[in-house]
Every structure is written in C-alpha cells, then in structure tokens.
Amino acid sequence: MSRLLQLADLHGSLADPLLDAMTFLNEVTGRYPEAISFAPGRPYEEFFDPADIPVFLAEYLGHLREERGLTEHQVRQEVFQYGRTKGLIAPLIARALAADEAIEVDPEALVVTVGAQEGMLLVLRALCAGPDDVLLVSSPCYVGVTGAARLLDLTVRPVPEAGPDGGLDPAALAQAVRELRAAGQRPRACYVVPDFANPSGASMDEPARRRLLQVAEETGVLLIEDNPYGFFGRSGAARPTLKALDGDRGNVVYLGSFAKTCFPGARVGYLVADQRVVGPDGARSLLADELAKLKSMTTVNTSALSQAVIGGMLLRGGLRLREANEPARQFYARNMDTLLAALDLAFQHLPGVSWNRPEGGFFAVVTVPFRADARALDECARKHGVLWTPMDGFHPDGGGTHQLRLSCSYLTPEQIVEGVRRLARFVAERLPDGA
Asked: Cys bridge to 391: 52, 65, 400, 432, which one at CB 3.0-4.6 A?
C-alpha cells in the first residue's frame, strides 16, 4: 500500500480554497460539456490553423539563416538544444514592443518566460525577500498572481478599484502604502492590469495612469504591469502603457504574453526588467539578469521550438502584432458589444441586477441580489445549461460574493445572445419575488 501523507504536513497553499477555484471550474465545465460557457478567458479557436505552425517555424529558421547568418549546425543548436536562459527571441520582442507600444528597451533587459505566469513568479520571488514584505494588488485581482503569492508565502494587501470601470485607484494605493509603513511593513510592489483587467474588465484612463506612476515614484513601490488584453479595445484607439509613460525611470516591470495575441498553447511570455541592481561590492547588473538566475533553477529555459514558432509569427506580422491582431480585435469588440446589448435587453426589468460596461477585452461583471457561488454555478449549469465564473475567488479581501464574471471571447455572437437569455432565466428564479 502506498505511503499516506497528511495534507496538514504539506505546504499550506495546497489546502487554500484559492488554489481549488480553477480546479472546480475545470471540473464543472467537464460535467456540463453541452452548456454555453462564459467561464474561460480563452482566445477564439477559429483563429488557429495547425497548418500555420510549420509556416511560422520555417519563417523563423529563414530568419536565423538569412538575417542572422547562422550555419546549419548553429540553426540546429538554436532550436534543438538548451538555449539562453533569457530566451532566443528577445531581440524580435524588443522590436515589436517598440513598434506596438513605443517601449524602447535593450533586448538584454528581457527574459522570455513560460507564459506570463512564470514571469509573475520570478518577479515576486526576487522582490519579496522577508516576512515584512508586502505585495499590493487591485481588488478584484487575477487569481494567478495571488495564487503565486500564496505559493511563496507572501503577504498580499488588496487595493480597491476606482468604480466598476476605473481600474486600480492611485489614491487608494498611496493610502495603503502609508498604512503598511506605519505598521512596520515594507510594501514592495503593486500588481496592476491597466487595460481591460481580468476579472473586472476595468481600464485606467491616461490621467489615472500618470497619477499611478507618480505614486510609484514618490513611494518607491515598483509597479508590475501585466498587459495581456491591451490590443483588444472596442475602439481602435490605444492608451499608452505604464511602461511607455514611465520611460527610463524604472518604476515599472512589464509582463507580456503571446497567449492572446498569438496562441496560448505555445506557453511563451516575457518580462521587461530594465531596473539596475547594485551588489554589496558595487557591481551592477540588470534586474533581468537576476531574474534569469531564478529561472535557471526552475524551468531552465523556455521551449526553443515554442519560441521559434512565436518568433515566426512576429516576423510574418512585420514585427507589428497590433496590426496583425486587428481582425481579432474587431471580433472581440463585436462580441463585447453583443454581450452588453444582450444584458441590456435580458436584464433591464430584473430588480437588483447591474453590470459594468468594459471598453474592451474579454470580461464583464454582473452584480446580482443573491450569493453567486460555486453552488449557484452548478445549479445554473444543471438547470439552464450556462456557465460563468464566481467573482469571490478574485477578491483577496473577501468581496465579490454577489457577482459573476462573464467572458465573451470564446463564443459566437449567437451563443452569447442565447447564453444571456438562459442566464436571465436563472437569475429571475433566484430573485426574492421570483420576478
């Protein structure tokens, strides 16, 4: 008989409900495969064609031979062997960042990661060194970063958003920093998604972004900017990233991912960490160099083949991903428009129900006058054939109990309309007067 281990003797995160949230969602989706699902924040699969993979790979191999002048032996080494811990395609990413976001950065300040999730883990591990160090996050917040903090035993301090569509509140961040320092703690960094955040869909306007950078400058708190959805506004206009606005002042570590702009199965992301680190002997390095040391002890390097395919996609798009993603932006914008119109029609006469109006991205939030938890989700799936995501798992401070997240990225407009109709029937049954 196999040895029996006590859960109480394992790391505390394994018993944390936060880590159970995604497992439950995957399980309920599997139990109701025919349901219309507003749960996954995935890109639309019809954009993908397996026949494109060899095309992208060939594009990158041609780049190695022609632009970089590598021999066939060197090409084989590049794609089949262990590569640089910092990554192989950092120069291409740097060129795309300059074209798409006006972020000018030395490729040596980049680390190519196994998705943005690894980037979060590396940055948190490096920045938070002792028991008094605190990570600040928006509330609600993406569970990937709070989950990573839980794995690392880091203290998390939530900071409220400025209304349903306003993103993280800079004044609330400044207040939280003052309170933490007064209590003898050391606020180290603040995680923020300025564009179409997961889960709230909220965005920060440019004045708020500038105020947030001012708070970072004045307090010394490093901003960790995550930007998976920035290309997908409902209008073509794009706001500048925090990293672009900050210039070379070093207040922002920038996390990027190709999951939404290319495809998630590659598991390729990156981070920009151009801050300078000084050692006890006065020696200086880039924060990216220090993060690469941590990566060398975890994933060693990011798949060379995955990097090659993403590199080929960047090259095929002329190193301008924003332009290459314009058809996807239009699709997601139409889906969000469809979702908001369907909510307006289906919920206008239901008392106590409200929703926000995101300017883009994948997510919207509906507030209901009952507890929208896992039990309610299971009932909704079983009786009405529609899935959504409870918001309580996204609130480190225990809020969100009467809210649900709807993702419209993975569905057709027809599915969105029908899914909202089904959801409205479920919500009406749950109202006190049965409206």
From this structure: 400
- Sign (positive or negative) of CA dihedral 43, 48, 53, 59: negative
Q: Where are the beta strands (DSSP E) in 161-283?
A: 186-192, 222-226, 252-257, 269-272, 276-278
CB 387 within 8 A of CB 380: yes
Instruction: List the domain boundaries for the chain.
Output: 10-39+325-430, 57-319
Distance set, CA 190 to CA 140, 334, 424 (Å): 13, 32, 37
- DSSP three-state, residue 291: helix
Class of domain 57-319: alpha beta
Q: Tokens 């074209």, residue?
A: 99
Angle, helix 304-316 to helix 72-80, in steps of 10 degrees: 110
CB 378 within 8 A of CB 32: no
Of 74, 29, 100, which is closest to residue 410 (Cα–Cα)? 29
Beta pairing class for 36-37 and 386-387:
parallel
244 and 209 Cβ atoms separated by less than 8 Å: no
Phi then psi for residue 285, to 5 deg, are -145, 175
Bridge partners for 139 per DSSP: 160
Query: Do 10-39+325-430 and 57-319 share a fold?
Result: no
Whole-angstrom distance, CA of residue 154 vs CA of residue 133 = 7
Average pLDDT over residues 240-266: 96
Mean pLDDT for 270-280 is: 96
Q: Which helix (H) or strand (E) holds 177?
A: helix 170-182
Kindly state the tokens that stand for 18.
């936060």
Distance CA 401, CA 379 (A): 16
pLDDT, one tens digit per residue, over 36-56 is 999 988 999 999 999 999 999
Helix (H) or strand (E) holding 213: helix 206-219
pLDDT in tens, 345-357: 999 889 999 999 9
CATH topology for the 10-39+325-430 domain? Aspartate Aminotransferase, domain 1 (3.90.1150)
DSSP 168: B
Measure the CA dihedral 303/304/309/313, to 10°: 100
